[in-house]
Amino acid sequence: ALFHQVYDGGIYTGLLLQLIALELGVFACWACYWMILYPRYFTPFRHLPTSPNRTILTGNFPELFPNNTWPYVRHIAETTPNDGLIRIYSALSGEVLLVTNPNSIRDFLAAKAFDFGHQELIQLAIKRFTGSNLGFLSTADFKVHRKNMLPAFAIPHIKQLSHIFWDKALEMVGCMEEEVKSNPQALIEIREYVSRATLDNIGLAGMGHDFQTLKQPDNELRLRFKKVILDQTKVFSWVGLLSRYLDMRMLLKAPIKKLREIAESSVYLRNVCARVIQERMEKLQRTESKDLAGKDIITVALASGVFQQGQLVDHVMTFLTAGHESTATAFEWTMYELARRPEMQRRLRAELREALGSDLAAVDFGPQAQSLPFLNAFCSEVLRCYPFSPMIIKSARRDTTLNGERIPKGTVVLYSAEITNHDKSLWGPDADVFNPERWLAPGMAKSGGASSNYAMLTFGAGPRNCIGQDFAKATLHCLVAAMVATFEIELANVDTADRLKYGQTNKSVEGMWARLKIVPRQ
Ligand code: HEM
After folding, report:
1. Which atom of ligand 1 is least distant from the CA of 326?
2. Residue nearest to atom 27 of ligand 1 (CA)
3. Which one of 19, 244, 312, 434 has the fewest CB atoms closer than 10 angstroms to its CB?
């Protein structure tokens, strides 16, 4: 009716046009302030260094949503002199601070860790399947949950679980071996196998339940899981951009097919986890023994008496999402580097042969994996050079400070494992070179010779770092050991495998495709 009146020149036309003009004017002023004037004249960080190469539309990047943003951020960090903080701008002048030196990183991840949290949109998106996981709890609840979860993730307990990792690793290479025996020319899709192995692994070590996706690749759990962990698309980037200016909560509830599939799959997976946890609870009540040695993580957590069933479902869903793809991707990059370096592959095989002998199934390799220097060094160097999350963004929950700088509530801050793990001032002039030797020098097995405790950020740092890092490393060691002891690995796509997939994680777009030759066993 309004349109009709405007069209017909009705009595309200003038008023309506004035209102629209006013709205447009307000919007133009608002956009002009936030996108042009604020970053130049009004930001409280205007004295901090920033890159001069910037446009309003794309910020410091060459396009609105580049495939991977971290190489550009790294270039800015390397070419902008700074004292620990740099201003970076994304599309439409979105302002982010990057912490660049050990002082500002320590403040951000350790001293002031609880002044920062995940951004609201990320919480809303992830909460749908992980519920209130560790990352989203209030500080008080976080401390209680983390303290009572930690014993299950401590190195002594991980060593007791590592026979599971070894058995799964052998099962994975056994499946590959069958495929190679039936067709020696077959190209093996490493991602497919390792993704199933790490999913099973977390099911077994996390809650004493074998999902059996290695044996049954198309089982419902795996298919549902694939639906939840959808590849990132530019749609999510648009939602992220718009959420800076509009409330996107309704959008996440929109009746879109993909969103409905995620919601249904989340319910399915949460129900599976709830059922298994219920069984663990009943079993724990039936057993007299209080001995938790070698028990799955959920049983150890249940025994603390702190967690309710629903909270444990949230935690298991987080382990599955945080631990499965990340470990599988580290394994893929290990295969990539080994295939490019046949002499290192041979050296590792020799070390493994000495430790394992010829019958892999007869040894319990897990507990001794940490003591093989070259295996440790190689995997540590892969984790340094290929951090699964190259950049992690958080926002200030309250007014705080970083490196002596005042940080108002709401400020978006970023740390980058990609940048810090390759920082020449921390790692030396060969920081960009893949060099496992740095972990082999006397006393350097843990630090790689870096000059700071905040030089390796693959697993974050401080009280909110990755709780599963020793679980991940032990899993990776077993997978790599079983693979290298069983096969000579030649990548079929070594020249193109390092092209990265769109998104925020360091994943090859093609994955690794290998020709495997079974190593003769004496
Ligand atoms: C190579 C493999 C892995 C990598 C690179 C990795 C990396 C990370 C990173 C960077 C964080 C975020 C730290 C922060 O917010 O600043 C994180 C958090 C977390 N990771 Fe991992 N992770 C891996 C494997 C695992 C595994 C196997 C598990 C569990 C079985 C796990 C469980 C978690 C949990 C629960 C958190 C949240 C911790 C908290 O908020 O207190 N991760 N991980």
Report:
1. 2
2. 323
3. 19
60 in contact with ligand 1, CB cutoff 6 A = no
Per-residue pLDDT of 89-108, as tens digits, reads: 999 999 999 999 999 999 99
- Rounded to two decimals, the ipTM of the complex is 0.99
Which of 500, 481, 467 lies closest to 386 in space, CA to CA? 500
Of 482, 474, 458, whose CA–CA distance to 348 is shortest? Answer: 482
User: Which of the 8 DSSP states describes residue 365?
Assistant: -
CA 188 – CA 512 distance, rounded (Å)? 8
CB atoms within 10 A of CB 260: 11
Residue closest to 305 by CA, chosen among 290, 320, 317? 290
DSSP 8-state symbol, 186: P
Q: How many other β-carbons are positioned within 10 Å of the β-carbon of residue 15? A: 9
Half-sphere exposure for 1 (CA within 13 Å, toward CB): 2
61: left (phi over 0), alpha (psi -120 to 50) or beta: beta
- DSSP three-state, residue 3: helix
Strands 94-99 and 412-415, by their bridges, are parallel
Asked if residue 388 has its Cβ within 6 Å of ligand 1, the reply is: yes
What does the alpha-carbon distance between residue 45 and residue 95 come to, in Å, rounded to a whole number?
10
Helix (H) or strand (E) holding 4: helix 2-8
pLDDT value, residue 4 = 57
Q: Of all atoms in ligand 1, which is nearest to the CA of residue 417?
A: 10
- Residue 462 Cα to ligand 1 midpoint, Å, equals 12
Q: How many CB atoms lie within 10 A of CB 416?
A: 25
Span from the CA of 472 to the centroid of ligand 1 (angstroms): 9
What is residue 288's predicted lDDT score, i.e. its pLDDT? 76
318, 466, 480, 506, best to mutate for ligand 1 pocket (most atoms within 8 Å of CB): 466
pLDDT tens for residues 244-299? 777 767 776 777 777 788 888 889 999 999 999 999 999 888 887 778 888 999 99
Q: How far is the CA of 458 from the centre of ligand 1 (A)?
A: 9
Determine if ligand 1 sits within 6 Å of the CB of residue 465.
yes
Residues of the chain predicted below pLDDT 50:
1
